[in-house]
Specification:
By secondary structure, the protein is mainly α. The protein has 5 helices and no strands.
Length: 155
């Protein structure tokens, strides 16, 4: 809400001191997260079929995509900070790092949940309800990214 209020009431946007934000990297990040939802769905299907090894493979692919997303966020933050776009540059930078940081934290939590699913699965133990809940959480975090990327990068 703070972002929208500032964005809609500012005489000029983005505020002075804001570099041109990349547009290709956020699109790649979006493709990565969308892909991870499909791979998580595939993992769930294989688990339902009782194909544990395929479930583990698709879960590992999902984890790798999540790690890739976080890595791209870290790369972008590093690049922007070295350009002088820090947490204190202006109101937009504060909002940018807060919103993208909170989303990244939720991705990290999802990766932790997937690790909690993976470790027992490697020993032949799974909890279908836990896996489904982890999948719903992941899909939700992916959907939220559409709002983040559209508002923070492209609006």
């Amino acid at each position: 809400a703070s972002y929208w209020f500032m964005r809609l009431t500012a005489p000029g946007w983005p505020p002075a001191g804001t570099p041109v934000l990349p547009t290709v990297l956020p699109l790649v990040m979006t493709a990565t997260l969308v892909s991870s939802s499909f791979t998580m769905h595939a993992a769930e299907i294989f688990l339902a079929r009782g194909e544990r090894s395929s479930f583990i493979i698709w879960l590992l692919i999902t984890i790798a995509l999540g790690v890739g997303f976080i890595s791209m966020s870290a790369y972008e933050w590093n690049h922007l900070i070295h350009e002088g776009f820090t947490f204190e540059t202006n109101a937009y930078s504060t909002i940018f790092y807060t919103i993208t940081g909170f989303h990244g934290a939720h991705v990290a939590v999802g990766l932790g949940i997937f690790t909690a699913v993976l470790l027992p699965a490697l020993h032949g133990k799974t909890n279908d309800g836990f896996v489904k809940t982890a999948g719903v959480y992941w899909h939700f975090v992916d959907i939220i990214w559409f709002f983040v990327v559209s508002q923070v990068y492209f609006w």
